[in-house]
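User: I'm writing a tutorial on reading structure tokens. Could you give me a worked example: one chain, its sequence, then its tokens, then a sentence or two explaining what the tokens reveal?
Assistant: Sure. Here is the example chain.
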Amino acid sequence: MSAFLRPIPAFALLAALYTAAPGNAQTAAPVDLRILAINDFHGYLRPPPGGITIADPEDRTKKITVPAGGAEHMATLVSQLREGHKNAIFVAAGDLVGASPFLSAMFHDEPTIEALSMMGLEISSVGNHEFDEGKDELLRMQHGGCHPVDKCQGPHPFAGAKFRYLAASTFEKSSGKTVFPPYEIREFDGIPVAFIGLTLKGTPGLVSPTGVADLEFRDEANTVNALIPELKARGVEAIVVLIHEGGLPTGDYNECPDISGPIVDIVKKFDRAVDVVVTGHTHRAYVCEIDGRLVTSGDKYGTLVTAIDLKLDTVTRDVISARANNTIVRTATLSKDAQQTALLESYDRLAAPIANRPAGSVTATLSRMPNNAGESPLGDIVADAQLAATRLDAKGGAVIAFTNPGGVRADIPHKENGAVTYADLFASQPFRNQLVTVTLTGKQIKDMLEQQWLDPKRPRILQVSRGFAYAWDGSKPDGERVIAERMSLNGQPIDPAASYRVTVNNFLFVGGDGFTVLTQGTAPLIGVYDSDALHAYFGANSPVGPTAADRITRIN
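And here are its predicted structure tokens:
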């Protein structure tokens, strides 16, 4: 078990005492190991528009935005952080792909796998978004080969990841075996270090159920603890966990005065043999001590690289100290890596004609951020677009459309002259979900809306199309929050016994995000892709602007 050290002077003092203490004269100096870590890259090969928000160094009561991210700049920083470190390894904590911008998503995230492999990533845990297109597609990401539907689209054959995916808690029901190896052991100057990789137990509720139907996602802490005896039997004392689950901290990107969220209880349940925990999923940045262990996270979209420095005892072969520092991938000061630039340009040449195609215009930024009731400007537009795409009888005869907030991934920004490209629209709807129109009764619609609070800590408020409105009461218990008499369509009350044609995406249709009522829908008709529906809507209605937020009303 490591001694978690944050202040550098204390760290230096410990090292001095260790080498100079009486009786230790013949003892070898500790082995240094630098671990570089990222999480939640999500295919952001180019810097994300928002950069990273941090405390203003000149006035910590204020926030500033720092331009950051991008594979070209990250590769340079990773190389710099490796310099002078004989023992170093580059790892990740999942969600490297999925919900990606156009450049990566158009090629089913092959460019991201190539970019990260090229910059020396060696090990990654599997995140929930790695399962967005199912187990078989994730296996293709690891081993390579052409996409089964879209075939080979890239500038060269896709060889698969040079890094190793780990998934200790993800088992195939049919075989009882893990989809990927549970851990990997690396030796540094003769000292073995185990890296255990796992995703969050709640993955089935975050991805399409059909894509993980044959998989079981077991408890994170129980999984790790069950592996400890096996690792110790192999002579391993130093253990690093790469887990796609995280926390909600306070403080700046290198601080952790307080942290809440699932990772806190998980770390407390870990066997004391676990020394360091690299986390993700919550898209936050922190360097924490939880239960005496170093716990880190590097924000999202490639804006940070975490450098973790360990000292390994040559006798006990365990971690004797650990410290970490999150370094911003600053686009203003870091040069672009030439190999990364060449890779991105090779994909750009194929993608640019589609990506830069004019799609319409906006009068103002369409934000995905919800109000207190759960309604967002962009959510309204996306739902309206899906209704428009399926309103005709031949297309489904829909009268209402619902879309999940997790599928609305990025704002549509207002840029020069309000112009919007296809890539802008795709970034907001990157999953390429097909629309499905089904018949539901009024009662089933209410029951479906009640499922928005299956996880009270993380309600999933569906975005609704124009003409449909309802109110919900936050003080009511489960199953009673939606006020039946406040549900209406075009001003008329929803009749519990009447039938309505309702459009959702195929993720929701199969019960994604826990909306199992939708699996009861009848007479399904498959429609266009959600991103194509949005593109058609902009073509017919530009300029598009925010609408009145009057579809969802919250009481109490």
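What the tokens reveal: The first strand starts at residue 31 and ends at 38. The mean pLDDT is 93.
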